[in-house]
Amino acid sequence: MSERRRSAGTPGPAALSADERKERARFTKIMSEPVPIPEAAIERAVTVMRSGRLFRYGEDTGGEGEAASFERAFASLVGRRHAVAINSCGCALFLAMKALGVTPGDKVLCSGFTLAPVPGAISHIGAEHVLVDVTERLTVDLQDLEEKAAQSGAKLLILSHMRGHVHGLDAVATLCDRLGVAIIEDCAHTLGARWDGRPVGSFGAIACYSSQTFKHINSGEGGILATDDDAIAAKAIMLSGSYMMYAQNGTCPPEEVFAPIRDATPNYSMRMSNLVAAILRPQLDQLDGWIARWNDAYRRIEAGLKTIPHIDPIPRDRRDAFVGSSIQFLAEPDLAPEIAAAFVDEAAAHGVYIKWFGADRTAGFTSRYDQWRHLADRRRLVGADRVLPRLMDMRIAVSFTPEDCRTIVTVLAEAMDAATKGQRG
Ligand SMILES: Cc1ncc(COP(=O)(O)O)c(C=O)c1O
Question: What percent of the chain has pLDDT over 90?
């Protein structure tokens, strides 16, 4: 271990000289810049507005609407037979559970590293959370999954590929198969990702996606539920609120699948509008190009992070063809929390915003299981407790250039230097 690494727990009192301060790099772009809305999407949205047909269903729609067309394109993109376009990924998770027959009081397994809307969806349905531990790679701990499934008797797992860290899907699917546990994949951060050559989202019974502004496609709010199962798709279409115009769905199952449920299924009004779909549809054509840009920036930043003392990017499995729209790294276990906090502050003061999961309070888009106080399951997760307090997370905008990546790495290196020396720039 280097001298700098050994002294990391004890910040010194020295301050930067005025000259040193001036030389510090600063990142001046917006870190959280969303994906741009393509001109084609803007034109389609304007056309929809001119038509007044913003609501996706109607007795006389004048042909296929934007929501239906988006559903067909989305299903084809993710390699599923059905896509149901709705209002958010949180609601997609809710509808997915409903479609699988979850009722209040049922137990639902949920990876312990995810964002608040995921336990929120379980609360929404009135089910009981059973949190499953995570490894140092932010993927589900298979042994804990097996134990918790056995103890709780839960028959459903919501598997969040949080921040794009794809769980070992073949192993999870095999285990869940053996345990008789169905999987809903939360693909809010993995649209376009693959596991061992196969689209992430194609391993569970249902996959749920988000088009909230900071995801891989951007409509402000939006969610998509994808499945191969006719009965699940029909249920989700009815539940989302299709009235009796479900046949207008872009990937509608055959009429006979609706027969037993059409009059017996509540309408939760969770639809996507034609306007939102019009904004989204042309973005699907841009996705491959955006992924290439994200991944290029990711690799550059990752290489830079490896040169900075006291932090290590999270290694990825070679089968994980992820989308690098954010990057996560761990502070070394012996980095004192006040130095980690100083590093985060120093980086922010120079334009690079890091989300730190070790902070005492949930802030912004961080989310730690022990801070979801509405859960009845208050058991500690040993792996998560080891990893989350050291976890740092940074957005990567699709617009980042190689020069931007260099500046970001320089800001972080200087922030760590200043934090470990107790110097503020
Ligand atoms: C991992 C994860 N799952 C689900 C969601 C819910 O997505 P939405 O905001 O579309 O409801 C989010 C939102 O950020 C998320 O980060």
Answer: 89
What does the alpha-carbon distance between residue 108 and residue 98 come to, in Å, rounded to a whole number?
12
Q: Is-contact 327 301, C-beta < 8 A?
A: yes
> How high is the pLDDT of residue 3?
33
**Does the beta carbon of 164 sit less than 6 angstroms from any atom of ligand 1?**
no
CB of 168 shorter than 6 A to ligand 1: no
Question: Which of 11-20, 310-319, 365-374 ranks highest by mean pLDDT?
Answer: 310-319
Helix (H) or strand (E) run with residue 14 in it: none
State the residue range of the domain holding 406. 3-30+284-421
* SS3 category, 234: helix
| pLDDT higher than 70, residue 16 | no
- b or e along 13-45 (b: 16 or more beta carbons within 10 Å of the residue's beta carbon)? eeebeeeeeeebbebeeebeebbebeeebeebb
Largest CA distance in the chain: 77
pLDDT in tens, 202-238: 999 999 999 999 999 999 999 999 999 999 999 999 9
Does pTM top 0.70 for this prediction?
Answer: yes
Axis crossing angle, helix 402-421 with helix 337-349, rounded to the nearest 10: 140
**Ligand 1 pocket check for 325: Cβ under 6 Å:** no
Task: Round to whole Å and give the CA distance between 267 and 146.
Answer: 35
Q: How confident is the model at residue 23 (pLDDT cuts 50, 70, 90)?
A: confident
Indicate if 181 and 259 belong to the same structural domain: yes
Half-sphere exposure at residue 131, Cβ-oriented, CA atoms within 13 angstroms: 27
Give yes or no for residue 95 CB within 6 A of ligand 1: no
Is residue 272 domain-shared with residue 162, that is, in the same domain?
A: yes
Spatial distance between the Cα atoms of 284 and 308, rounded to a whole number of angstroms: 36
What whole-number distance in Å separates Cα of residue 40 and Cα of residue 281? 9
Tokens of 408: 């970001």
Q: 162 CB less than 6 Å from ligand 1?
A: yes
Q: Which of 75, 351, 328 is nearest to 226 (CA)?
A: 75
Q: Which of 89, 166, 326 to mutate to test the pocket of ligand 1 (most atoms within 8 A of CB)?
A: 89
**pLDDT tens digits along 118-134:** 999 999 999 999 999 99
pLDDT in tens, 327-363: 999 999 999 999 999 999 999 999 999 999 988 777 7
- The CATH number that applies at residue 156 is 3.40.640.10
Report the domain count for the chain: 2
Among 242, 263, 283, identify where a domain stops.
283
Q: Are 205 and 156 in contact (CB under 8 A)?
A: no
